[in-house]
Amino acid sequence: MAERKPVTVHYRKFDRPNGVTHSLEDLVRSALNTLDPSSGQGVRLKDRYVSRLQTVGSDNLFINLCIDQTQHTSYVMGDVLHFTKGRLQALCQTADPNAALVPVQQMPPPNQSEYVHSQMFWLIKGDHVFVIQSISLQTEQLEAYLKWFLSTRTQLLATHCPLILAAKFDAGTVGGDLADIQQITLGGVVSKPVTSEVAENPQSTVYTERVSETTDHSSINTQRSTGINVARAVLAPLLGGDASVDRLLQAVPADAELKVQVNIGFATKKRKVDRVALRELETGLRNLPDSQLEVIAKGKKVGIDGSVRLHYNASVKLIKLQVGDSQIIGSLLDPIDVKRALEEAYNNFVSNGKIR
User: What pLDDT shows up at residue 63?
Assistant: First the structure.
């Protein structure tokens, strides 16, 4: 097994709400240093993991690793762990090589331990956010956790203020700046964009024209298919109600999937269509999976591998476990090398002029 794992560092930026004067870095640092009234005197949230534990149904999430970097450069860096209390782990017994089949059993976690579903890493510098996602923890989950941590757990961010980690299209990849995008093709749900303070700074927002087209067809295609709720939401206005959607869904063959594709094209100002801020659209699409997004700019089509959003490809060491005289390479990322990769991503974007 390889000793390193290729990873993608995803870039996001805190869309600072009107009236919020502190950067996301300062807010998270202040939250970690906030005193926990439920603990002993002088105990901060960063001193006890249970002070940072968020429980949502059966899911438990918390920041485990906390690094507050203040020398030479300033940032906060950490992770988010996800576990379900008492979750069983499947295993099979392979002691008998002559067995026709092996027993498959479920094992509870050891006493006072829990099996970890997933671990993601993040680094925040100013309002810039760099994320190494995991299977069940992505930027959408980081948004939700930080919103809870800053608004509910510590009240450092007003509850009415949204916490948006906006994505950014990579101008070098899509063939131009934001205003050069001609068409965006979606294969999934589009998050509702948060209203920005356009009226206060109209010059900072890029506008264009929008024409939307929706097509649907039955196809055996698992690469870019949408969920049933997404299909229903898109098709109901188009077909005239849920009843028509139900008839369409019933007509889809058992061996086929319904694929709903939304094309957002950008025409000239001569067309009498509604105006929309492209930056709002960029924000609204932030949580759409990379595999369901394509962009056409200046005649160049890019996607669906996630290359349209600003990101950095890196390689990170895997943690080894010493078993007797042998070392076994595991699947956990080495946090020290993760820190290096996240710093490297920031320095790369700054030196290339992609962020400021």
Answer: 97
CB-neighbour burial class of residue 26 (10 A; exposed 0-12, middle 13-18, buried 19+): middle
Please state, in angstroms and as integers, the Cα–Cα distance from residue 339 to each residue in 90, 116, 123, 229, 326, following that order: 32, 21, 8, 38, 27
Residues 78, 95: Cα–Cα separation, whole Å: 40
187-225 tens-digit pLDDT: 643 333 444 343 344 444 443 333 333 333 332 232 344
CB contact set of 325 (below 8 Å; sequence gap of 6+): none
Measured in whole angstroms, how far is the alpha carbon of residue 259 from the centre of its chain?
23
Range list of β-strands (E), 175-299: 181-186, 207-209, 211-219, 257-265, 275-277, 293-297
Element (H, E) at 90: strand 89-92
Which residues lie across from 9 on neighbouring strands? Answer: 132, 312
Q: Where are the beta strands (DSSP E) in 178-256?
A: 181-186, 207-209, 211-219
Its pTM surpasses 0.70: yes
Report residue 38's pLDDT band, with 50, 70 and 90 as the boundaries. confident
- Whole-number mean pLDDT of the chain? 79
**Cα of 268 vs its chain's centroid, Å:** 33
Burial tier of 202 (Cβ tally within 10 Å: 0-12, 13-18, 19+): exposed
Q: 343, 9 in Cβ contact below 8 A? A: no
